[in-house]
Amino acid sequence: MAPVRTMLLWCPDWPVIAADIVEGVPATTPVAVLYANRVVACSASARAEGVRRGLRKREAQSRCPQLTTVDHDPGRDVRAFEPVVAAVEEVVAGVEVIRAGACAVAARGPTRYFGGEEQAAERIVEQVAETCEVESQIGIADGVFAAGLAARSGRIVPAGGTPEFLAGLPVEALGRPQLTDLLRRLGLRTLGDFAALPAGDVLARFGFDGTLAHRLAAGGDHRPLAVRRPPPDLAVTETYDDDPLDRVDAAAFAARTLAERLHDTLAGHALACTRLGIEAVTAHGQELRRVWRHDGLLTAAAIADRVRWQLDGWLTGTSRRPGSGRVGPVRPTAGIIRLRLVPEGVLAHVGLQPGLWGETGQERDRAHRALSRVQGILGPESVLTAVLGGGRSPADQARLVPWGDERTPARPLVPPWPGRLPSPAPALVLPVPLPAVVHDAAGEPVRVTARLEVSAAPARLEMDAGGAGAMEIVSWSGPWPVDERWWAPAEARRRARFQVCLADGTALLLSLAGGQWWVEAVYD
């Protein structure tokens, strides 16, 4: 692919600058950032004393006794670089973060808007300096790789002149130490020497990574810019400084108004909300926050209901239930002066399936509202739904979660669980297994040996000790053994499972553990 004309902004010694921004280590003094006891970045004053990248800590300190060392922290570098990226996005659109300390943008748009590449580069550098008080340099060339090298000297490479610009640079510019060492030993010292090799020979000798480096050395590029799109600010806020919310009726009106604003904002971005954050600040500075989860899409009415219920709980303390032994939240000492709704879980809204009579799921919406209201009165644990997860037995695969919570299985569904029962799944799983006795044709109890050998074919199932409920077994399959958590004696469980079909057509799931038979589930 033809390389795109690229403008790359580079902040020199960014790990040092980030340590200055986040931890207050003065970047104007000799500073070195260490990783695995070696210098990965250093300040200009440290370089003036002979400190270089790759030096061990002891050697760097011997060259510069007043050297301040800081541990390498990629997270710190990224967090500190985010304001710089935001400052660039205020001037140009379509920014891609290359790494902490460097970001790139296609040069075509800024060049047209500011009247030239040099004018655009000056404007971006000025914006970063004014907004973040950070020094930066910009390089412009064909492709991200060449633009990054041009930024080291703040150079604008003419269009079409990238191969010539790269030809004189040393092979170390590729940033591949092992490949660079090999090229040096082969007598290839510049990128131009490397680019002159036939592509087929490079692939045969250096492999795929060497071929990619060869393409970069020749002035090509391996991928287009993956621009970053800043997420829109979807939160809505309302202040009530003149009339703080201290009554439930006023809070209900405010909840509906703010909920409609949030829903309209999400609809404008073709989004829907599944997890809602409700934040409030009282006149005395008390901060309140609660997150409501919902398994479906939150409509404007559903958002308003949850905000109203939450405000009701905060203002009146309805979460305190006498005799429950649970302590509810402390009622605010003053009215609410600021209310903020934050959609923390959003997804693309592609529309709802119409109902049987043409409504847009009105019955389902009413059921959701009714169940959510029950939770608001009795608590989240009052309405539960089943979630299917992984496991070896039907009883292990089901998990009950509160209505509206994320339906996350207790155990992952994939990869397939070894020892899992084959299909079909039983229609009814007994909450408490029923004791039973299984006999063979001679009337002897059926056993399973340590080698998983059945003593005899199961012929009769008795559900009570008196034998009155004896039923004939016409077919059976198994055993399927389970030996779980053998390393934890208190939790260990070993059993063998059978599927049996009775004479009346009933199909059961049986298990044998410790010499005792149990009926675990019924098949439809």
UniProtKB/TrEMBL annotation:
A matching Pfam family: IMS
Source domain of life: Bacteria
Keyword Thylakoid applies: no
Record-annotated UmuC domain positions: 30-155
Keywords: DNA damage
Cited CDD domains: PolY_like (cd03468)
Family: Belongs to the DNA polymerase type-Y family.
Job of this protein: Poorly processive, error-prone DNA polymerase involved in untargeted mutagenesis. Copies undamaged DNA at stalled replication forks, which arise in vivo from mismatched or misaligned primer ends. These misaligned primers can be extended by PolIV. Exhibits no 3'-5' exonuclease (proofreading) activity. May be involved in translesional synthesis, in conjunction with the beta clamp from PolIII.
PANTHER family assigned: BLR3025 PROTEIN, BLR3025 PROTEIN-RELATED
Protein name: DNA polymerase Y family protein
Annotated organism of origin: Plantactinospora solaniradicis
